[in-house]
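Notes from the 1:1 (GR / supervisor)

We went over the backlog. Supervisor wanted to see one worked example end to end before approving the batch request, so GR pasted a single chain during the call. The sequence is below; no edits were made to it. Supervisor asked that the structure be written out right there so they could see what the output format looks like.
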Amino acid sequence: MAGIYIHIPFCKKKCIYCNFYSTVNINKMEEYVEAVINNVKFKIQSSKFKVQDFKVKTIYFGGGTPSLMPVYLLEKIWNTIFENFEVDAEAECTIEVNPEQCTLEHLSEIKKIGFNRISIGIQSFNDAILHFLGRTHSAKEAQRAIENAQRSGFENISIDLMYGIYLRSVQDWKKELKTVFNLPVKHLSAYSLTVEENTLLHKKIIQQKIPNIDEEQSLNEMKLLMDETEKACFEQYEVSNFALKGYHSKHNFNYWNGTRYLGFGASAHSYSGITRSWNISNVEKYIQALQDDKPFFEEEYLTPDNQYNEYVLLRLRTKEGIDLKLLEERFGTEKLNFFLKSLQQINSRYYEHQSHHISITKEGLPLLDFITTNLLF
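Structure output shown during the call:
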């Protein structure tokens, strides 16, 4: 299984917490789409790439805000993918959208392109929190967006929420989760608010305009999240992802499973299993480089140690965890013995050893960063 990711970096406004590459300058969308198309053609023509060996099972348009882009431009990229790659008839095809663009008409047009999964950037159903985060939609618009997605024909609806925000009480958080379960949502991605450098959030905390992240609050809200999703029959199949049966994100699982993927667009990453590459994180330079047939990406080879560390780091995030037989097969007996020896230093309450699998327990998930740090080579 292989995946394709398309980065659409355009946004109406930069959110307070966002450290992903995006731009509020939307004047170069036409040129950008042509650059993405040229990026696809460049990859197809590369002597290192064999298109017949790359069977596409997932397509993901992320951002930024893909729903800001006119539908005809989205369709232009979509057609390029299908013209140049073998795409599975049952491929999972996702597009990220923001609630303020989720009119019934717009979503219906997106659905006609061929997308069968939609991911809505809600973040909160609380207007005060949305204002604090720099979001440009209201709580009512968030609910309406989900309802419109269903009415326009999307069955596989995913939303994002954020916790660990000082403005929200535990009861507020519980109320927001209840809202989710009363809506036609099949998949939930929930992340703790984190402070990234070069963000407005980081700047305001340094200036003491707002309080720093309360780790205890985040931990308590994560535990409540796990409890409430379980009651609602949402399986926690990855530390930050919850889904009803049959609605796990296949595209995200590509990343956690070490599957090959191709990234097109400014700042998009690609992974071959032994190499990782990333495109220029600048729309203008990305466009110009592809117009001038100049280098537009950097690449690195992953050492065996790098590959082992990535496998451990990503697989422990998932419900399935580490397959010890596969670990030995891929990385050798030395790495397996290192892993098992390191594991002995971890409290046994935090992981489960069944047959030849190691997975993190519910009690261990809030400590995942600590646990994985001790298992890296």
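Supervisor's comment: The longest strand covers residues 86-97.
Batch request approved.
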